[in-house]
Amino acid sequence: MAAAARERAKVSRPRVYFPSPTGAERGRVRLRTLSVLRWLAIAGQSVALFLVYFALGYPLPLTYCIAAIAASAVLNVVLTLRYPPSHRLSNREATFYLSFDVVQLAALLYFTGGIANPFSLMFVAPVVIAAATLNLGNTLILAFIAFISVSIIGMVHYPLPWPVGEPLMLPQLYQAGIWAALIIGIGFTSVYAWRIASEATRMSAGLAATQLALSREHRLASIGALATAAAHELGTPLGTIAVVARELERGMKENSPEIEDVRLLRAQAERCRAIIARLATPEEGMLGATSRLPLGALLDDIAASYRGSDIDIAVTAPDTGTPEPQVWRVPELLHGLGNLIENAADFASGQVRITTAWTETQLSVVIEDDGPGFAPEIYERIGEPYVTSRPGHYALGETEMGPRGSLDEHEGMGLGFFIAKVLLEQTGGVVKAVNPDSGGARVSINWARGVIDGEEPPTTAPD
């Protein structure tokens, strides 16, 4: 029964959709962005080339160098004519064009001194762009191409442009050091950029799911307020219709042909009044921000959906001799506490304990279960998006930047605790999760007094 109740509670949860990363999928990189960067590279390469050849008078194979720069310009022109500026590149397309940039840079450096040329540092740029926008596989492909290119021009290249009669011969050991610095620099910066981009993507997707969940709660609150207003406004005219119908019925003879119609009219009016009254009845998530409840009653109301024959959820409060706080039924509080109680009920062996406490300065809620506790492999990452220990459920791996596939619901994705934490922190709460020595898992939420039980509803703002 508890499982069935929990499934009913999940039916109306928001559905979160993420695109599936197929080969034809448009990625996050616009063609225009890469084209602009390539034009900047072309301009920089042209200025450097002509300064070295004409201003400094250093000899170099100008024709070959111009051909390498022209190849980039031709590619940009062709892509501009073929695609609109807003065209988004797939991972495969972006990898191909960035690989071209690496090879073009390698060709230009081959004719101008190889890795001894100070501009060999520019090998880092395409790989970092790939690491920040593409998946791990394509980033590794581009890094490998950069590694091969650096290695080839490190061994075979034209002399570095230098004054005639004063050849610059760098020691082999020094050139090996430059090669090692380039390889390590490319590897380190690409890994760093990929990790930062991966965390940002996960957080962005997790916050999007949070906003969807919160949007649902706000819609339910609006529906509840609308139902209450409708009951208030329509109750009087429907009552009048029922009274008039009753008077008409009393004034008719029992064998009158219209008496059945009048009785039907009165019955339908009473039915409408009952339906409106039922719609206006406060239910979970249907109260607006103007509603307040004692803290224990609020928790008991939220926990009702997850109780059953196999799960006992007990809400207890200390006898402090002071009045129990009256808290606001804001959507953030309802959904955040609901997610935590649902998680506890899912992992509990048979009991969930919800304990409230309050002082003059602080209000707290502690949710404990008698389950296995938080898994060791995720304990340090509790509260991050896409972290889950539910067996058989999908969560992001270390090599994935963002969610993939069509996900009908966010349950089991490692988003439930994250959403709860974000929503409760928006109400001013501080969320902590631990594995107590007594076993199970414990989540505590603490608020300063007056935040959720003040004269005005708590002010929330997205992170």
Kindly describe this structure.
- The chain has twelve helices and nine strands.
- It folds into three domains: 184 residues, no CATH class; 63 residues; 157 residues, Heat Shock Protein 90 (2-Layer Sandwich), CATH 3.30.565.10.
- A five-stranded mixed β-sheet has the order 4-6-7-9-8.
- Helix 4 runs antiparallel to helix 5, helix 5 runs antiparallel to helix 6 and helix 9 crosses helix 10.
- With 463 residues, the chain is an alpha+beta fold.
Average per-residue pLDDT, rounded, comes to 79
* Shape category: elongated
State the low-pLDDT regions, or none: 1-26, 282-290, 405-411
End-to-end separation in angstroms reads 37 Å
Global Rg: 34 Å
Give a brief outline of the structure:
This protein is an alpha+beta fold.
Features:
463 residues, alpha+beta, Heat Shock Protein 90, 3 domains, five-stranded mixed beta sheet, two-stranded antiparallel sheet, 12 helices
Topology (elements, then pairings):
Layout: H1 2-10, E1 29-30, H2 31-55, H3 62-82, E2 88-89, H4 91-110, H5 124-133, H6 136-155, H7 172-251, H8 259-279, E3 292-294, H9 295-303, E4 312-316, E5 326-328, H10 331-347, E6 351-358, E7 362-369, H11 376-379, H12 416-426, E8 430-434, E9 441-448
Parallel strand pairs: 4-6
Antiparallel strand pairs: 1-2, 3-5, 6-7, 7-9, 8-9
Helix pairs in contact: 2-3, 3-4, 4-5, 4-6, 5-6, 5-7, 6-7, 7-8, 7-10, 7-12, 9-10, 10-12
